[in-house]
Design a protein that fits this description.
Blueprint (H helix, E strand, L loop, with lengths): L33 H7 L10 H41 L4 E4 L3 E5 L4 E2 L12 E6 L3 E9 L7 H22 L1 E9 L2 E8 L2 E12 L2 E10 L3 H13 L2 E2 L1
Antiparallel strand pairs: 1-2, 2-10, 3-4, 4-5, 5-9, 6-7, 7-8, 8-9
Length: about 240
């Protein structure tokens, strides 16, 4: 701090200017306010109390930075939530047409291949199961080229095969209960791993092969998924 009259440096403890003699009390309120004096004093480390003024000046920037971080975090959380919702309610629930080699089939929802199913135990030339948490689809292919059947004989074989599968399921599936048989389609209930299921099974022939198609869901969901299961079987197209 300097004397306002002559500019000579003025010590904090000096009550008058050593050069011109003007008393501190005559220099004005800025030279007599204790708070103002403190703003110009420094400690031994060179860190003046005036540095707190710098912190106060930086506070708005700090607050803006924290606010920006909060906004970015909120946006990320919203995007994650929306992404999970879309994955569960759009991606997983969309219909998907799968190419399974000899034929295509349209699943009402996304399904993945499943290695655990009672229908994988069939002694078939080819067998696979696809499922999600609500529905499952299984198929088995049997070579019948040695039989050299006519078209009418193939149609009869489809119905006969389903009748034979009725007997096989009764012996091979736990708690098997037949609902009905209509032409080449068998509907039934069974139990697997303490869960009760409703199933629709259909026999089809194509070229020199006999195909067995099965769609099933939990028995408690029968009314909700019967139409979807039938639509899935009806969507099968041989190449």
């Amino acid at each position: 701090m300097n004397c306002p009259i002559c500019g000579t440096p003025l010590g904090n403890d000096e009550q008058s200017c050593s050069n011109c003699g003007v008393r501190r009390s005559e220099m004005g309120i800025d030279y007599n306010s204790p708070s103002q004096n403190m703003m110009y004093s420094t400690n031994n480390s060179g860190c003046g109390i005036n540095n707190f003024g710098n912190l106060n000046a930086a506070a708005p920037k700090i607050r803006r930075t924290i606010k920006t971080v909060h906004i970015v975090a909120s946006v990320i959380m919203i995007l994650v939530t929306v992404g999970c919702f879309l994955y569960r309610n759009v991606y997983l629930t969309r219909s998907v047409t799968e190419d399974l080699g000899d034929f295509t089939v349209t699943f009402p929802n996304v399904m993945k291949e499943n290695k655990s199913s009672p229908f994988l135990n069939l002694e078939a030339d080819k067998c696979a199961v696809y499922s999600n948490q609500k529905l499952a689809f299984a198929y088995a292919k049997f070579d019948i080229s040695d039989y050299e059947l006519t078209e009418s004989e193939l149609a009869e074989l489809e119905e006969q095969y389903i009748s034979d599968m009725d007997a096989a399921c009764e012996n091979g599936l736990e708690n098997y209960r037949k609902k009905d048989i209509i032409n080449n389609t068998l509907r039934f209930y069974f139990t697997e791993n303490n869960e009760n299921y409703f199933s629709v099974m259909r026999g089809d022939t194509n070229d020199d092969a006999m195909y067995l198609f099965v769609a099933y869901c939990l028995e408690k969901d029968e009314n909700n998924y019967t139409i979807k299961m039938r639509s899935m079987l009806d969507s099968i197209k041989f190449k």
